[in-house]
Amino acid sequence: MAVGQAEYQDVIDALVAAGLPASFTQTGGMNAALEIPLDGGHTLLVTDAEDSLSWARAEHEGWAVALFAPEHAYDGEVLAADRTGDGSAEALRELIDRVLRAAVR
Predict the structure, then answer these.
(1) Overall pTM surpassing 0.70 (yes/no)
(2) String of DSSP letters for the chain
């Protein structure tokens, strides 16, 4: 876990600075993601655009973000989701904003 955390520390730091308490996590098996718990128990799960988060940042390709209800952690129905081919921290922050706005519509 420490290796994955170190690979994405700049992204985690940027999210935390924006008020999103992100951490590197495993979602089962060796599948990795960034997890962001939200007020009210909802969770944002951040992965690569097409698969689980790559353990090696050099293999990272874009972002996918999904919002889950409290009772579903990240194994149930997705309330809102989106993806981008841009793998930057700035693109992730914009993507999170889009997902959260989509969820309140």
Answers:
(1) yes
(2) -HHHHHHTHHHHHHHHHTT---EEEEEETTEEEEEEE-GGG-EEEEE-SSSSBPSSGGG---EEEEEE-GGGTTTS-EEEEEEES--SHHHHHHHHHHHHHHHT-
Contact 43, 68 (CB under 8 A): yes
Phi, psi dihedral angles at 2 (to 5 degrees):
-60, -35
The string of pLDDT tens digits covering residues 35-71 is 999 988 999 999 999 999 999 999 998 999 999 988 7
Confidence of residue 28 (pLDDT cuts 50, 70, 90): confident
Burial of 2 (0-12, 13-18, 19+ CB in 10 A): exposed
Residue 47 carries which side chain, given as an amino acid letter?
A: T
